[in-house]
Amino acid sequence: MSLSYLFTRKPGLQLAFFSDLDPDQVLETIVAFANTEGGDIVVGADAQGRVTRGLQAEDAEDIATLAVTQVRPPLQVEAETYELPQGSVLVFHVPRSPELHTLPDGRVLSRRGTENRTLTGQELTLAAVGRATGAFELEEVPGSSMTDFDEEVIAEYVEHRQRRQPTGFVGPIESLLKQIGALTERGRATVSGMLLFGKEPQSFLPQAGLTFVKFPGTDRHSERGAIGYGRRVDIGGPLARMIERTWQVVWESMDKKAVVRGLKREEETEYPMIAVREALVNAVAHRDYRIMGRRIEVLMFKDRIEITSPGGLPGYITLKNIVDEHFSRNPRIVNGLLQWGYIEELGLGVDKMIEAMVAAGHPAPEFKATPHSFTVVLRKGHEVGEHHPMPQWETDMNERQMKALQWLQEHGRITNRDYRQLCPNVSAETLRLDLVDLVEKGILLKIGVKKGTYYVLKRKPGG
User: Fold this and answer.
1) Can you point out the beta strands (E) in 19-76?
2) Which neighbouring-strand residues pair with 81?
3) In the CATH scheme, what is the code of domain 3-118?
4) Could you tell me which of 237, 261, 236, 235 has the C-alpha nearest to residue 249?
């Protein structure tokens, strides 16, 4: 991965920038990345590409040595040094590890957004269990070989991968498949390889399909009261094709209407495309493929869509922290869909679902979890083309709050930090109360907790 490509991205779940070399901070981030989704650490430059002088190639070797000697179990990281006219820049490539790693002081860190956080108590137990179950996608599929892969699907994957990483892997396709965990060293397909590239994955893994059902009413009964449905489609194939086909079926089954907003003529659907897409990709990427006898289910009712994937919430994810935390049960499948473009940025899928539903005038998504399943419910707040205006703004709204609403209409979300920058001469507590007031009036929706908190409008103005 080239340095220039890293400079086009923003710091986040899988990318960190350090202008100056602080060995402790870099080591903490290495451990956090290894315990979460892996990532890249740039040292000697900031996110804008401004380079700091003073680093040496030996510094990269020193940090890599610390990861082996100070971290338990030892961590192997790849270090690169880029010699630029302004100075040297170090880049550490950290893979997601199948094990949980600790720092010399015993802390176990994970990555949340742009921050590293310490796991404690039950989180540690759940993270360890999640690591163990994640090994399933690397298991060999009995009786398989590379001949069971679809060459067209592989070529499409490679094309998307090279588009994202122009200077990435160069070499034989078989070597690439082994590198990403799709093939074993003896040429057998792994579970993740079969799911991503197989000609007929469901012939080896019958549980890996998807079933779409559309019901005419608000429950599983027909209009006459008997149990029945209007349409059923069973969908299989490699995961990318399954996502495409399912989205097509959902699109065909949704009500649509052309509406005019301002001078533009737009097609409005029952549910925002982004929300349905994110919920669908989430189900495919994070289901527990070890569970036999149950497929992913997409159930469409008159008033809602329910997308259920087999397997409870992975790792240390709970219904309370689902917006803020991220943990992949199937990291290689997730990375494959990321390279394909079905996942734009790790850790943002739930945020996008919430924002898209609320912005379109619908309730925020509901999340339901059992030990063996996870369901996303998207409910309709209005019919297609129906006018859904913003709630009437109170006459006592202050000037600061009007500034916040203007910012929201331009940027889509606002944080406490954004609000402080808008109103620099006002106390933080006063601004916090302003936002609480807007939430209580039903104008804003609060998403996340603590440092990850932000706010979105409950309706688009003039919607």
Assistant:
1) 39-43
2) 90
3) 3.30.950.30
4) 235
